[in-house]
C-alpha cells in the first residue's frame, strides 16, 4: 500500500494523462525516439498526508507512446509526523499512463523503516489493477530484515491487497516474521 501510494504520488503529478499499451516500444529509451518532453536533474516534492521527495537524473515523456521513462531515480517518503518511512532507488523506471503500471530496472531497492526491511532486485513491476509487485519469473529478489535475517528467491510476488509475499521457487535463507513495532 505504501509503495503504490508512493509511486502514484510521485509519478502522476509528472505524468500528465494518456493511455499506454503496456509494452516498451522500440526506441523509447532514446535510440530513434524523440520525447515530447524531457527534463534533466529534477526534484519533485508531493505533500499530502505524507511527504514524498523524488530526484531523477532524467524524465522523458513519450505521449504518442503513452509512457514516461525515468532514469536515476531516488526517493524518500515521510509520514505525517515527519519521520522517514520509506526510501529507495532505481536505475530506470517506466510509467504507463493508462494502466498506471510501473516497471523498475537496473539496481532497484526499497527500505521500509516501518517494516524494518529492505527489498532488492534488478527488476520489479507494479500492476496497479491487481495491486501486485512482482519480480521477473526467473529473476532473483532479496528481502533483508534489519535484524539480519534474509530470504532470496525467484518468482517473487507481493500481493498488496493481502500484504502477502510469495516466492515460487529457488528460495533460500531465513526471514524473521515478527511484527515490527509501528
TrEMBL record:
- Keywords, ordered alphabetically: Signal
- What protein is this chain from? LPS export ABC transporter periplasmic protein LptC
For whether the record's keyword set contains Signal, the answer is yes
Task: Quote the PROSITE patterns the UniProt record gives.
Answer: PROKAR_LIPOPROTEIN
Residues spanning the signal sequence: 1-23
Which organism does this record belong to?
Alkalispirochaeta sphaeroplastigenens
Tell me the domain of life: Bacteria
Amino acid at each position: 500500500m505504501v509503495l503504490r501510494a508512493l509511486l502514484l504520488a510521485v509519478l502522476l503529478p509528472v505524468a500528465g494523462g494518456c493511455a499506454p499499451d503496456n509494452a516498451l516500444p522500440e526506441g523509447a529509451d532514446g535510440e530513434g525516439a524523440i520525447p515530447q518532453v524531457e527534463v534533466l536533474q529534477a526534484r519533485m516534492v508531493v505533500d499530502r498526508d505524507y511527504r514524498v521527495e523524488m530526484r531523477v537524473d532524467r524524465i522523458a515523456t513519450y505521449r504518442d507512446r503513452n509512457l514516461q521513462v525515468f532514469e536515476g531515480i531516488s526517493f524518500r517518503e515521510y509520514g505525517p509526523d515527519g519521520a522517514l518511512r520509506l526510501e529507495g532507488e532505481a536505475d530506470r523506471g517506466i510509467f504507463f499512463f493508462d494502466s498506471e503500471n510501473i516497471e523498475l530496472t537496473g539496481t532497484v531497492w526499497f527500505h521500509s523503516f516501518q517494516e524494518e526491511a529492505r527489498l532488492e532486485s534488478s527488476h520489479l513491476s507494479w500492476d496497479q489493477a491487481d495491486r501486485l509487485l512482482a519480480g521477473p519469473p526467473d529473476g532473483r529478489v532479496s528481502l533483508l530484515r534489519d535484524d539480519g535475517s534474509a530470504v532470496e528467491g525467484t518468482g517473487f510476488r507481493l500481493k498488496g491487497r493481502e500484504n502477502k509475499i510469495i516466492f515460487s521457487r529457488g528460495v533460500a535463507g531465513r526471514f524473521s516474521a515478527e511484527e515490527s513495532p509501528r
